[in-house]
Write a structure and sequence with these properties.
The protein is an all-alpha fold. The protein is built from 19 helices and no strands. Helix 10 runs antiparallel to helix 11, helix 12 runs antiparallel to helix 13 and helix 14 packs across helix 17. The N and C termini lie close together (10 Å).
Length: 478
C-alpha cells in the first residue's frame, strides 16, 4: 500500500513538473517570435540581426537534444531535468537584462541548452512513470503544454509587447521555472540507466553539428535564398554529418542514440506520422496569424484571440482520446483526426476571406478537434514497446524528429508563400490559399502514414488501464 502511494505521488509529480516546464519552454519560443519587431526597434538593429535570437536558440536545442538520453542515463533523470529547468530559468533572467542584441543572442543559446535537455528527459521520466495502458489518460494534461502554449502565446505575447515592455517576454518564465524546480526537487525520484556507459563523442559531434547545420539551412533558406552559398554549404554539411552519424551509430557498441529503436514498427511509423502532423500543425500556427493580419487586416492581438480556439478544440477532443484510443486504436483515431484537420484547413483557407470573426473561430475550433484526435495518440503509440532502459534514447530520437520536421515544413511553406507572389511585398490571398493547401498536403501525409499503424503493433498501450484497487492488492501481496 505504501509503495503504491509513493508510486502514485511520483506519477503526479512527474506529470506536473513536465507539463509546467514544457508549457514554459513552448510558450517562450512563440512569444519571442511575436516580439521580434519590438526587439528590432529596441536594439536599433536590422531584422537579420534579431533573427539570430531565434536561430541561436534553435541551433542550441539541436546540439543538446541528441545527447539528452545519455546525460539522463548517466547522471540521473531528476538531476538533469532540474538542471535544465534551472539553466532555462536563469537564462530567461539574463535575457531580460540584455543591453545589446549580441548579449541577448548568447543568453538565448544558453536557454537552448536547458530547452534541449528539458523536453526529452522530462518525456522519458513521464513514460517511465506511467505504464503503456495508462498513457492515454494523461494525454489531455499533456495537451496543456503541447497545444495550449503555442496557441495562447500570440495572445500573451501581444499583451506583453503592447501593455508592458520587452523584458517581460523573458521575466514571465521566472516564477514558472522556480515553482517547477522547487516542486521537482521535493517530489521527483532519481533514476539512472547504465551509468557506466562511456560518452560517444563522435556521435555527439556528428548528431549535434549535423542537426544544427540542417536546421540553420532550413531556417535561413527562405530568408537568404536557397541558392545562397551559406545555405547550400550548411545544408550539404548537415546531411553529410547526419548520414555519417547513422553509419557510426549502427557500428558503435555504445551509441549516442540507439537507432535500432526504429526497428520497432510502432516507433518507426509513429515517428513518420509525428513528422507530418507536427510539421503541418506548426505550419498552421505560422500561416493563420499572418493570413488574418495580411488578408483580413486583424491586429496581432485580434489574430491571436481568433487563433486561440484551436487549443480549445484540441482540449475538448483530447477528453475523448482516453476512450477512443482503447476502443479504436491509433490507426483509426489518428487517420480520422488528421483527415478531418486537412478538410477543415482547406475550408478555412477558401472561406475565411468573407467569414465573420466568430465564424472564423468556429472553423478553427473544429480544426482543433481534428488535431486533438491525431496529435496526442501518436505519443502513446510511439512508446508502447519502448523499454525503461531505452526510454531516454527513444525520447531523444522522437524529439529530434519533432524538432526537425517543423523546421522543414516551415521552410517549405515560407518558400511557397514567397515564391507564389514573388513580385509582391505582401503575399496575396491566392498565395496564402496555395500555401494552406500545401500545408494540408503535409497533414494528409500523416493521415496516410497512420493507416500502416496496426493495432497489434501497439497492443501494450491498448490494454484497458488497471483499476487502482487491483494494483493495491497485487503490490501488497508482493
Amino acid at each position: 500500500m505504501l509503495n503504491l502511494q509513493s508510486r502514485i505521488k511520483e506519477q503526479h509529480a512527474v506529470a506536473a513538473v513536465y507539463v509546467i516546464s514544457l508549457f514554459m519552454a513552448s510558450m517562450d519560443g512563440q512569444i519571442v517570435n511575436v516580439a521580434l519587431a519590438t526587439l528590432t526597434r529596441q536594439f536599433h538593429v536590422p531584422t537579420s540581426s534579431v533573427q539570430w535570437v531565434v536561430t541561436g536558440y534553435l541551433l542550441s536545442l539541436a546540439v543538446f537534444i541528441p545527447a539528452s538520453g545519455w546525460f539522463g542515463d548517466r547522471f540521473g533523470t531528476k538531476r538533469i531535468l532540474l538542471s535544465s529547468i534551472f539553466i532555462f530559468t536563469l537564462a530567461s533572467f539574463l535575457c531580460s537584462t540584455s543591453t545589446s542584441i549580441t548579449q541577448l543572442t548568447v543568453y538565448r543559446v544558453l536557454q537552448g541548452i536547458g530547452g534541449g535537455l528539458l523536453t526529452p528527459v522530462g518525456a522519458s521520466m513521464l513514460y517511465r512513470a506511467f505504464p503503456p495502458e495508462r498513457r492515454a489518460s494523461i494525454q489531455p494534461t499533456l495537451g496543456l503544454a503541447t497545444i495550449i502554449a503555442p496557441t495562447s502565446a500570440p495572445v500573451i505575447g501581444g499583451l506583453i509587447v503592447t501593455r508592458l515592455n520587452w523584458h517581460w517576454i523573458f521575466l514571465v518564465n521566472i516564477p514558472i521555472g522556480a515553482v517547477s524546480f522547487l516542486f521537482g526537487a521535493v517530489f521527483l525520484r532519481e533514476h539512472r540507466e547504465n551509468p557506466g556507459a562511456r560518452f560517444d563523442l563522435t556521435g555527439f559531434v556528428l548528431a549535434g553539428a549535423g542537426l544544427a547545420s540542417l536546421i540553420y539551412a532550413l531556417n535561413q533558406g527562405p530568408i537568404r535564398g536557397w541558392g545562397s552559398f551559406a545555405v547550400v554549404v550548411a545544408g550539404a554539411a548537415g546531411v553529410a554529418m547526419l548520414l555519417g552519424f547513422i553509419v557510426t551509430e549502427l557500428r558503435s557498441h555504445h551509441p549516442m542514440l540507439r537507432l535500432r529503436l526504429f526497428r520497432d514498427k510502432a516507433f518507426r511509423i509513429s515517428s513518420v506520422i509525428t513528422a507530418f502532423a507536427n510539421g503541418s500543425f506548426q505550419g498552421i500556427m505560422l500561416l493563420t496569424p499572418l493570413y488574418l493580419q495580411e488578408v483580413r487586416g486583424f491586429t496581432g492581438l485580434q489574430a491571436g484571440l481568433t487563433t486561440f480556439p484551436i487549443s480549445v478544440g484540441v482540449m475538448c477532443s483530447a477528453q475523448f482520446v482516453r476512450r477512443t484510443y482503447h476502443i479504436f486504436g491509433p490507426r483509426r483515431t489518428i487517420s480520422f483526426g488528421l483527415g478531418f484537420m486537412v478538410i477543415m484547413l482547406v475550408v478555412f483557407s477558401f472561406e475565411a476571406k468573407y467569414a465573420s470573426p466568430w465564424t472564423l473561430r468556429v472553423m478553427l475550433f473544429t480544426l482543433g478537434l481534428g488535431v486533438g484526435q491525431s496529435n496526442l495518440p501518436v505519443n502513446i503509440s510511439a512508446f508502447s514497446n519502448v523499454t525503461s532502459a531505452d526510454m531516454g534514447h527513444g525520447s531523444a530520437l522522437f524529439n529530434m524528429v519533432r524538432r526537425a520536421a517543423p523546421a522543414l515544413a516551415v521552410a517549405i511553406l515560407t518558400t511557397v508563400l514567397a515564391s507564389t507572389d514573388h513580385h509582391r511585398l505582401i503575399p496575396s490571398l491566392f498565395a496564402f490559399q496555395v500555401t494552406f493547401v500545401v500545408c494540408a498536403l503535409i497533414g494528409f501525409g500523416g493521415s496516410m502514414s497512420a493507416l500502416f499503424l496496426r493495432n497489434e503493433y501497439v497492443a501494450n498501450s491498448m490494454n484497458p488501464p488497471r483499476q487502482p484497487e487491483s494494483v493495491i492488492e497485487t503490490e501488497g501481496a508482493e
